[in-house]
Write a structure and sequence with these properties.
The structure is a single chain. The chain has 106 residues and is mainly alpha-helical. A hairpin with a 2-residue loop joins β1 and β2. It has one domain. Strands 1-2 form a two-stranded antiparallel ribbon. The chain contains 4 helices and 2 strands, in the order αββααα.
Length: 106
């Protein structure tokens, strides 16, 4: 999605619209991700949107476990464990990708 520095404007545009409260994101188990129709893809070919923003349980379970095992400072350990258990519980309830539009802030 970011083939060069000049392409960062695509992401920055989406981020700024999101911060402004525009309805440009959907909720996913790993946070908010762009709605496909709200992200400027002009000039980009062969983008696998579903693959790019997929949230496979096995990958995220392994990735977070790896971070926990290799990069966790003991000071943050307790808070991280709490959030990891909450996140892991969310992952275990997913059978299909979850997407819901965000309403525009007023």
């Amino acid at each position: 999605m970011w083939p060069g520095f000049g392409e960062n404007v695509r992401v920055l545009d989406w981020m700024l619209r999101r911060v402004d409260g525009d309805d440009v994101a959907i909720s996913s188990p790993v946070g908010y991700i762009p709605k496909k129709e709200e992200f400027h893809l002009e000039g980009l070919e062969g983008i696998n949107w579903e693959g790019l923003f997929s949230t496979p349980k096995d990958f995220w379970t392994e990735e977070v476990s790896r971070i926990l095992a290799n990069q966790m400072d003991t000071f943050l350990f307790t808070e991280f464990i709490f959030r990891w258990l909450k996140f892991n519980n969310t992952l275990m309830t997913i059978s299909v990708p979850i997407s819901r539009p965000l309403s525009k802030r007023k």
